[in-house]
Amino acid sequence: MSLFQLGEQSTEKVPSGPDSIAPGGAISFTPRALVEAAKILEREGGKLFRVGVTKGGCSGWNYDIAVAQEAGSDDTIFQLADDLPVVMSSKAIELLAGMRINYTVSLQERGFVFENPNASSTCGCGISFGV
Questions:
Q1: Does 6 fall in a domain?
Q2: Exposed, middle or buried by CB within 10 Å (0-12, 13-18, 19+), for 90?
Q3: Which of 1, 38, 45, 48 could crosslink 68 through cysteines, CB 3.0-4.6 Å?
């Protein structure tokens, strides 16, 4: 079987519909990103899907996603689409307010894509940004 099969249809269903937006517009997920994040939570056995930032990278800040078992004292939990609890620290909310998370699948890559309106610069890798 060849890696490239022209004319063959994908059996994977791509979710559609409106984005799921956290209260106050802190963050939103496309339907595809929501499904993939829920899969990660289930696979990893986590209770919360953490969206955050860490200092570093070529632009100053890195996007960070992880699975968490509980929220910290500085965290806010947002319930998206009744089945994805997202947790963010106050610093992450400050730097990522209004961010849209998408999930892309192509021949060259597969993963989350961060559309951050607060980023004044980004790195070519897509996981580092500056403000």
A1: no
A2: exposed
A3: 48
DSSP state of 16: -
Q: Tell me which H or E stretch contains 43.
A: helix 31-44
For tokens 């984005």, the residue is 19
Q: Is residue 39 in a domain?
A: yes
List of residues 6+ apart from 87 with CB closer than 8 A: 48, 49, 50, 51, 68, 71, 75, 76, 77, 78
Q: Which two tokens stand for residue 4?
A: 């490239």
- What is the reported pTM? 0.79
DSSP letter at 107? S
Structural domains in the chain (count) = 1
Q: Could you read off the pLDDT of 16-51 as tens digits, one per residue?
A: 677 777 777 788 999 999 999 999 999 999 999 999
